[in-house]
């Protein structure tokens, strides 16, 4: 059984101009000990679907319908008080920008020790000793010194390591990483990805890794969910996505074609997906990707496709999932 399963999740936001359907029927699952990469452009609903799991939504946001099953228990039915025992204990999150997540007026030790004190009932002295151990686990040099420092005294990579240490403090079963490497340079990004892979192997933690970067997904993910306009348009093992499978969604194909490769001839222009993501209050009638899809037909513009199984491990939301069938429609 999957550790986490989202079933037909709908998360909406009330605005002055109407209801924004940020997550509109999302379904995906995370197996124990595996990493699910959630990829898509900004505004595709990646972060909102993940934050819905912990009910960390803005004041105007709410889960309209659907189920979020964690170890068989529906998290949407839990009270705020019951969610406190889940957040940071069973499910932890690493946010995109650690400088806005860490409190600038408290030391690293003070902040990393909170999960130990709140969830495990440790004394301050016991928690402080555990903090040193956790900082060492995330490969921070001189953890005794860093523990006494404030966030502004650390580099971006070190701050992100502190966030990872805090998230893993209680050895959660699921870790949500919301674009944790976006603000880091390439060298530090590679170190953080290796660290997360090593920690996953060591602790058996499942990970939801949210990013817009397919290169990062290729390095860390076992399975991939491609999102567009609040929906999952393709779900498959990472190997299927990156190894040129027989089936794919045109949006996934567009993302793959836009990646620069060493084999690409010099001065060759990369393929770009035309247009932009539609406004959430003005979504197209049929397939949400149809206005930008070079394979779109009249049916695509008027009917919304369902998610279909094209193999035992791959699902695609498209009327023409087989590449050969649609390439003749150019």
From TrEMBL:
<protein>
    <submittedName>
        <fullName>ABC transporter ATP-binding protein</fullName>
    </submittedName>
</protein>
<keyword id="KW-1003">Cell membrane</keyword>
<dbReference type="InterPro" id="IPR027417">
    <property type="entry name" value="P-loop_NTPase"/>
</dbReference>
<keyword id="KW-0067">ATP-binding</keyword>
<dbReference type="GO" id="GO:0005524">
    <property type="term" value="F:ATP binding"/>
</dbReference>
<dbReference type="Pfam" id="PF08352">
    <property type="entry name" value="oligo_HPY"/>
</dbReference>
<feature type="domain" description="ABC transporter">
    <location>
        <begin position="4"/>
        <end position="254"/>
    </location>
</feature>
<dbReference type="InterPro" id="IPR003593">
    <property type="entry name" value="AAA+_ATPase"/>
</dbReference>
<dbReference type="InterPro" id="IPR017871">
    <property type="entry name" value="ABC_transporter-like_CS"/>
</dbReference>
<keyword id="KW-0547">Nucleotide-binding</keyword>
<comment type="similarity">
    <text>Belongs to the ABC transporter superfamily.</text>
</comment>
<dbReference type="InterPro" id="IPR003439">
    <property type="entry name" value="ABC_transporter-like_ATP-bd"/>
</dbReference>
<dbReference type="Pfam" id="PF00005">
    <property type="entry name" value="ABC_tran"/>
</dbReference>
<keyword id="KW-0472">Membrane</keyword>
<keyword id="KW-0813">Transport</keyword>
<dbReference type="InterPro" id="IPR013563">
    <property type="entry name" value="Oligopep_ABC_C"/>
</dbReference>
<dbReference type="InterPro" id="IPR050388">
    <property type="entry name" value="ABC_Ni/Peptide_Import"/>
</dbReference>
